[in-house]
Structures are given as structure tokens and as C-alpha cells.
Design brief:
two-stranded antiparallel ribbon; alpha+beta; Transferase(Phosphotransferase), domain 1; single chain; 521 residues; Phosphorylase Kinase, domain 1
Length: 521
């Protein structure tokens, strides 16, 4: 081997040339083992040098890619994106070297920033994802995107801006976000004129790192908490955008993890924002000091059995069939927003809508100092308060039906909060109009829950479920037992459906006082 490896092999000893099998062919081997070794050494040295020059790039590349420990290989898309990202990063590293070479020690430098490849992907953007807010005003979009000034200062005389300027620094921080781990979604903020304060940037950076560690831990355990699942990178990105845009000050933590949603508490930001009411023009609004963020889960399983609520709701009927499952989930958020708005307009105590963004609904927080108001089922009320709560609930159910033209459809002590000495209604994503094919059945179920709760709670005046149903709906179903009552309700629903089939419109008999109110949505 040693002899064969020598590139400049001189002719061997005399006995070798006389060898009956001929002389070994040594010319095809071009370098010695020692050379190979030294070339490796050179590569290593070069790598080391690069490491020293561009530590952040190398650190990122070595992190999730090379070790391959934290990668979720179950997703081809993810894999492709990661490969692309790796390629882009290499490209960018090269670009940085060029940039450095050109600029040298010069005080004025040329930035290649705009030629860089790494833009966090947003697979959503390829789809026709325009929600109701996008079409009017996007609070996250900067008016004039500008590039990050790389030199120490810009401007002249009094208008000079140094790199320590808050605005400049903020933009730079935004640009630096892309140095976070590749799976950390920083959004398209880089292309915008976003300004991150050092404090926010550092917090975000810290979060990116701890997120990386946490992600690794979770993969080891091969399990995810329910909250973790709901807050996928895309959702997180949307939440960060809300914080960056100043809509929210901080997101403090999770209040509730349910089957269909996760609710977070947040402190409201101090920007004035525009709302788009369904019927009126835009209106200036101040963000409530404390907000609840309801994130509708993007895992579909739980929603399947609730299809009937939305599929049969004529307001959403036409759209339903054309939508992909992700959009259907957004529709839940949208539905909750519309329903809350109706309730708000009727003066029913309920969360005030702040913002809807895709499957995320931000509303005012019912509670104080991060502590949510207790559910009616968890609070111990004096008999006086209990009675008060009952009459208020009766009143709200009537208002909801008559003024909002809605049936809650999930009303119980679980979705009523006790705050400021009164009952607040929440969780109205599934609420439907009374003429919904199952609307009256839903109402009857609501009445049963409410009647039972207050009767058990010792309110002697509380109507039973059938009386309550008639009191709320204005109908006069006379059956004196549950089974017959239920049958009459179903007969009414069927009559209405048949009428719709034959005449293309709903009967108005459900509404005690003529036509139901019209909401032009
Ligand atoms: P789910 O469909 O998961 O039941 P909810 O809308 O009922 O969703 O919210 C879940 C829980 O989160 C509620 O029981 C309540 O404790 C809390 N919550 C929801 N919205 C608010 C709000 N606006 N203010 C305070 N707490 C809220
Ligand atoms: Mn609920």
C-alpha cells in the first residue's frame, strides 16, 4: 500500500520489473495518504476559520440539520423546506463573506442584505387566504417598507440619525431575527419596516433559543401538550405579529385548553386601531387593558362532529362547501366574532371583539389582573346573588333570541362567567339563528341546562325548562312532559324546513314579533 500510494513512484528494484504478472500500475493514484491527510487538515482549518468569522451561521447550520435529532421527519414539506433553508443559509454565508471582503474596515459599508435568500417561509401565502380584515386594513403592514440602513448614520445636520437611533436599531433587530433557528418562524417582518426594540428583540431571541430546547425535549418525549399543539409555528407567528404591531403588549399565559380552542391572556397594547363594524363605518377603538386570545385549534378532529352547527347555518351555507378544512376552522372564529358583535350591540354582557386574524380571535378579558372571572359552576353565590343571576340570565336569553336572533346552543354554567356582580356570556362560536334546522332543539337544551342549574342552586322562582323555552322563544308549546315537548319542537323545525324547501324562505312563526332582525353580513 505505501509503495503504491506514492505518486512519484520510481521504478522498483530489478526483480520487480521481471515479475511475470507485470509491474503494478501506480500512475492512477494521484496523491499520498499524507496528502489526503493534509488536505483534510486544510479543510478543517478553513472551517475553523469560517467558524470564527461567522459563528452564528455555522452554529445554526450545525444545530438542527447536522445532528438530525430534533427533526420531525414525518413531514416531507418540512424536510424540503429545511433543505431549502440550509441551501439558502449557505448562500447567505457566502454573501456575507463577499460583503465583508468588499467593505473591509471602511466606515461606510455596502449592504447585501437585500440579496439574501433566507426568508422565513409562509406556505399560507400561496393560498387565497384573505380574511375580512385583510381586505380592508392590515394593522401589521407598514406603509412604506424601507431597507435597514447599515452605515453608522444617515441624514444631514440636525436630521442625522445614528445607528443607536431607536428606529434604526429597531429595524436592525428585525433583520437580525432571521438568525434565529430555521424552524423558528419570524414571518415576513424582515421585508417590512418593522422596528423591534432591543428589549423585544432580546426577549424574542431568548424565546427562540428556549423554544429550540423545548422542542428538542418534546421530541424526546414523543408527546406534546394540548396547548403546544394548538400553538403551531404559524399561530405563534401571528401572535408575535400582534405584539410587534403594538396591538398586544405581552401574552402572559394560557387560561384554558379546551377541545376546540386554547385561550390566552394578554395585556393590550396602546395603539388606536380601526374596527370594521358590520353595519357602520370604521370606528376608532382603544384596545382593552386586558385581552383574551381565543385560538381555534387547527387540528380538525374535534370539529368534525360539530359540522352541523355551521353547515346548516344559512349564513355560512354557500361558503361551506367551497372551503378547505382550515378555512372552516377560521369560520368558527369568524362566527364567534359576528355573534359577539350582535350581543354587544344588544347590550348583553359579553367579551368585546378586538381583532380577528385567521383562526385567532382577540377579545376583551373578563376578569382582572390575569385572573379570569370564575365560571358560574365554580363560584359560590349568596342566595340573593343567585336569584339576581337567574333573572339576568333569563333576560339575556330573551335578548339573545329576540334582539340578536340567536340561540347560544352551548349555554350552561360552564359558559357563563360571574364578574362585577353579573353574569357574562362567552363561547358563542356555535351559536345559531333560531330558524337553524336544529335551532329550537339547541334552545331547549340550553333551557334545560339553565333551569336545572338555578333550580339546584335554590332559586325557587326559576322556571322549569319548558316554561323557560316558551318564555324565551315566545312560542306556546303546551305539552306537559319532556318527550311530547321535544316532539313538538322537532315538528316545528320540520315544518320550517319544508317551507324553506317549497318557498325558499323561512317561516316567521318562530319570531314572536314578526320578522327577525336583519343582519347584513
Ligand atoms: P371552549 O370552546 O374551549 O369552551 P371558551 O370560549 O368557553 O372556549 O373559553 C374557554 C375558557 O376560557 C372559558 O371557560 C373561560 O374560563 C376562559 N375565557 C374565554 N374567553 C374569556 C374572556 N373573554 N375573558 C376571560 N376568560 C375567558
Ligand atoms: Mn366553553
Amino acid at each position: 500500500g505505501v509503495a503504491a500510494a506514492a505518486p512519484d513512484a520510481r521504478p522498483g528494484p530489478a526483480w520487480q520489473s521481471k515479475c511475470p504478472w507485470g509491474a503494478p500500475n501506480t500512475t492512477s493514484i494521484s496523491c499520498s495518504l499524507a496528502d489526503v491527510m493534509s488536505e483534510q487538515l486544510a479543510k478543517e482549518l478553513q472551517l475553523e476559520e469560517e467558524n470564527a468569522a461567522f459563528p452564528e451561521v455555522v452554529a445554526v447550520a450545525e444545530g438542527p440539520f447536522i445532528t438530525g435529532e430534533n427533526i420531525d421527519t414525518s413531514s416531507d414539506l418540512m424536510l424540503a423546506q429545511m433543505l431549502q433553508m440550509e441551501f439558502d443559509r449557505e448562500y447567505d454565508a457566502q454573501l456575507r463573506r463577499e460583503e465583508k471582503k468588499i467593505n473591509g474596515d471602511s466606515k461606510v459599508s455596502i449592504s447585501f442584505e437585500n440579496y439574501r435568500k433566507v426568508h422565513p417561509y409562509d406556505s399560507d401565502s400561496s393560498e387565497d387566504e384573505v380574511d375580512w380584515q385583510d381586505t380592508r386594513h392590515d394593522p401589521y403592514r407598514a406603509d412604506k417598507p424601507t431597507t435597514t440602513p447599515r452605515r453608522g448614520f444617515i441624514g444631514k445636520g440636525k436630521d442625522i440619525t445614528t445607528k443607536h437611533d431607536e428606529v434604526v436599531c429597531g429595524r436592525k433587530n428585525t433583520a437580525r431575527m432571521e438568525n434565529f433557528a430555521p424552524e423558528f418562524q419570524v414571518g415576513d417582518g424582515i421585508g417590512m419596516d418593522l422596528k423591534l426594540s432591543n428589549q423585544v428583540f432580546n426577549a424574542l431571541k431568548q424565546h427562540a433559543y428556549s423554544e429550540e430546547r423545548r422542542s428538542a425535549r418534546l421530541h424526546e418525549k414523543k408527546e406534546h401538550s394540548t396547548a403546544e399543539k394548538a400553538v403551531d409555528p404559524k399561530t405563534r407567528l401571528l401572535l408575535y405579529k400582534m405584539v410587534n404591531a403594538g396591538m398586544l403588549e405581552t401574552i402572559t399565559g394560557c387560561i384554558s385548553t379546551g377541545k376546540e380552542s386554547v385561550v390566552f391572556h394578554a395585556y393590550g397594547g396602546n395603539v388606536i386601531y380601526l374596527t370594521f363594524c358590520m353595519r357602520s363605518a370604521t370606528e376608532d377603538k382603544v384596545i382593552p387593558p386586558e385581552c383574551a386570545i381565543k385560538v381555534f385549534k387547527t387540528t380538525l378532529n374535534e370539529f368534525k362532529n360539530r359540522d352541523k352547527y355551521i353547515k346548516d347555518d344559512y349564513r355560512f351555507k354557500d361558503r361551506f362547501s367551497k372551503l378547505n378544512p382550515r378555512k372552516i376552522i377560521r369560520m368558527w372564529a369568524e362566527k364567534e366574532m359576528h355573534n359577539l358583535t350582535r350581543m354587544q350591540n344588544a347590550g348583553i354582557p359579553c367579551p368585546q371583539v378586538v381583532l380577528l386574524k385567521k383562526h385567532i380571535l382577540v377579545m376583551s378579558f373578563i376578569g382582572k389582573d390575569q385572573i379570569p372571572a370564575p365560571k358560574l359552576k365554580d363560584v359560590t353565590l349568596s342566595s340573593e346573588d343567585m336569584k339576581k343571576a337567574y333573572y339576568q340570565t333569563l333576560n339575556m336569553m330573551q335578548q339573545l333570541y329576540k334582539e340578536c336572533n340567536l340561540v347560544h346552543a352551548d349555554l350552561s354554567e360552564y359558559n357563563m362567567l360571574w364578574h362585577d356582580g353579573k353574569v357574562w356570556l362567552i363561547d358563542v362560536s356555535q351559536s345559531v339563528e333560531p330558524t337553524h334546522p336544529h335551532g329550537l332543539e339547541f334552545l331547549f337544551r340550553d333551557c334545560r341546562n339553565v333551569a336545572q342549574f338555578f333550580q339546584k342552586g335554590g332559586v325557587a322562582e326559576a322556571l322549569n325548562e319548558r316554561e323557560l323555552f316558551n318564555a324565551v322563544s315566545g312560542l306556546n308549546i303546551t305539552a306537559d312532559n319532556e318527550v311530547d315537548f321535544q316532539a313538538e319542537i322537532e315538528a316545528l323545525e320540520k315544518m320550517n324546513e319544508d317551507h324553506v324547501q317549497n318557498h325558499g324562505k323561512k317561516l316567521s312563526t318562530f319570531s314572536s314579533d314578526g320578522d327577525p332582525p336583519i343582519f347584513d353580513e
